[in-house]
Amino acid sequence: MLGHRLSRLRPSVQRSLAQPLTERQFIHANLSRPSFGNRIRLLSTRASTEDAHNDIGPSKSKITATPDAVELMNFHKTYFQASVAQNAYDLRPGTYQDVDETDILRYFPEGLAGETADEFAYTSSKKWMIRDATKVMYRIIEESEKRLKYDATDVAAKSLEKTLGGDVPVSPDVPISQIGMYSAVSVPRLSEREDWPNTQMNVTYYGKELFPTTTAPQPASVDLIQTKGPGSVLENFVDNLKKEVSAAKQDLPDRVILTGNNFFRVC
Amino acid sequence: MFVPLKCQFGNYHAGERGTGKSTLLNQSVMFARQRGWLTLFVNDGWEHVHSGPYVEPLEVKVGGVKRKVYDNPYMNKVLLRGFWKAHHKQLKRMVIEDTEALLKYNEPIAKMQKLLVRAMSLPGRDKLNFVELRALVTDEANYFEAYDAPDSEVLKNYDFLSIKLVTLEDLVLLGIALADQSGKVFYDLVNALRNQTQYPVLFAVDGYNTWFASSTFAYGTTESLLGREILVPSALTFITSKKADEQKWTVKRGLCIAATSIKHNAGREVRFDQELKQSIPLRVKVPVYSNTEYLSAMSRYLQPRSTPMTPILRWEDFFNFRMVTSSTPRLVRVDNMQFFLPKVVQYMEKDLELAALMSMSSTSKSHRQTVAADLALGYDEEEEDISFESFTSTYGKVDGKNFAPDEEDSDAAVDYESDGFDIEDVEDVEAVVEDEEDSDD
After folding, report:
1. Do the beta carbons of residue B212 and residue B227 sit within 8 Å?
2. CB atoms A69 and B307 under 8 Å
């Protein structure tokens, strides 16, 4: 049917359509047209989770969310979302934390690096994922503060109060509704499966490995334990770093490079 | 046998691009700024060696030694403006210690003041602000309106006639006000930040590897300048392949974070993992999504009012998609449309075909049925008959890309119509289709 319609367009327009569109162009172009917009909306999940089982399109043609999709959709709400106020170290790796709109304007007048802004635009909301790597970087900054004898506690607390309008406590108790944050995530055929080698954190000090790598399967339920408290992987990393630094009779490093992992050329 | 799908498009670097390095850098910058760190943030290193209207040679002093670099004034200003916006309150409290270094600005300041006074002496100009007056007194060949326009926000109350260089804020504003001084200002600013002890300082650069490849610019020869020869990269080269170089580049109270990027061709071949033992103190390899992170990302992309991702997903698709994207964060976002959309279209087509078959008895009836189904979906036949003008006016603006056809295309369209066949007339099309079908019979 689409081909039939395209064939009725002028050749010049057909040629323009034949040019590959980028992902953003595709979405913008289609959503800006009312008739196509309806189709795209029909394809999207613009219904709340509660009524995802209900029809989301016009009455005559219905697309119903599959039970699998609904199940997957619910993982976010149950396990992987956190507010600005929550301490990043307490979050399960992979949790999306809200980023305040005013914070983006205040802290990034230069603009954001990379494709973070695209991610925000694509999902129509401002959240970013707190990963193990995020916690490592936060920890490196905090360790630098210790090295520099700088106490950021007051500034950080004030900054958070400003973000929250001063109405919300800085470290609120976890609401009962988010108790899932601290329980195991289990997806058959995924959770019990070993992570790929290139999904593991890897930090080196002058080429020497600091982040203990493991080849054992890492069920999702142990994520939180891995990065919290004494004996956790994150603490071990800091201890290893300090050990190496002291052996080299150096200060804690003042420069860091972030690179990708497992670089290879496919062809 | 595994055959990489993207071979047909040439070399494909997998595992490195889109793992989340830039997001991690953003998170680090925000974390540091929230905690009161002064942060000089270069959010796109590539821009500094590939953008800007021109470069020109400039002599700067590094550790008492004179060095020739290439100034890219308008890109320096971009950086200075961002830094001022993020930290002007702190900069106001930071007194410049190396006052001798400021002497070189006396002459250009006096020259500009003279020009401003002369311009203001004319009637009707006394109420113009600094940016408007600067536009009047600047030589036309050196005036780049688009690059200067964002200055208005920063310099709206700037009093250049009573300028005094006391704090770092004064220095930064001078660099924004006078493009030709911005290079020297940037060098002095970086030196001041490296030597001050009032605040912790973070130097954060994204696309750092692009500074070690050729730039877009050449000066005097046909050979491209190296990225590191341009001013901003030359002032912020805190990681090199030699440990000795790094020990020269010191920062008294701070931290430097560089992120590599292979978004652009420039710098793709620059590797920082070859000389790890010699040069890089701390390297964080940002991995692709783990099992849990992939689960979280997919769940997020499926959220209501979030993305156009399919609600017909099944767990098989979930696992297949992980293989397709190698669990690479960027690909999980970028490829989900093209992976899932055909499945939804297929699903919809079956639905529509069934509806059409149930009441179909002739071609025309089938067509009417299709139109009715379209209308039910909100697909308006008349509205959908796109005219050339409406198409280009809508699509010509998408992401700044010009979709409007060139003259040759326009001519082709006219020729097509001159054949006497009006393609926008649906009835004609239907008649032709039916005639053809009749003749086939």
Report:
1. yes
2. no
* Number of C-beta neighbours around residue B371 at 10 A: 14
Number of Cβ within 10 Å of residue B171's Cβ equals 24
Nearest chain A residue to B347, by CA: A63
Residue A257 pairs in a beta bridge with B258, B283
Amino acid A196: pLDDT: 79
Enumerate the residues of chain B whose CB falls inside 8 A of the CB of residue A144.
200, 254-255
- Pick from A14, A46, A254, A264 the residue to mutate for testing the B interface (most B CBs within 10 Å): A254
Instruction: For residues B212 and B268, give the distance between their C-alpha atoms in angstroms, rounded to a whole number.
Output: 10
At B372, which amino acid appears? A
Q: Could B292 and A185 be called an inter-chain contact, meaning their C-beta atoms sit closer than 8 Å?
A: yes
Comparing A96 with B11, the larger pLDDT belongs to A96
Put simply, the answer to whether A60 touches B301 (Cβ < 8 Å) is: no
Q: What is the pTM of this model?
A: 0.75
Which residues 100-139 of A are in CB contact (within 8 Å) with B? 103, 106-116, 118-119, 122-125, 127-134, 136-138
Of B281, B319, B282, give the one whose Cα is nearest residue B298: B319
Residue A187 confidence (pLDDT) = 82
CA A205 vs CA A131, A257, B3, B204, B284: distances in Å = 21, 11, 36, 19, 9
In this prediction, residue B134 carries a pLDDT of: 93
Host H or E run for residue A67: helix A67-79
B84-117: burial string, b at 16+ Cβ within 10 Å, e else: bbbbeebbeebebeeeebbeebeeebeebeeebe
Calculate how close chain A gets to B356, using CA atoms only, in Å. Answer: 12
> In whole angstroms, what separates CA B380 from the centre of its chain?
37
The pLDDT, as a whole number, for residue B305 is 64
Measured CA to CA, the distance from residue A145 to residue A151 in angstroms comes to 7
From A100's Cα to the closest Cα of chain B, the distance in A is 11
Residues in chain B with CB shorter than 8 Å from the CB of A33 are 394
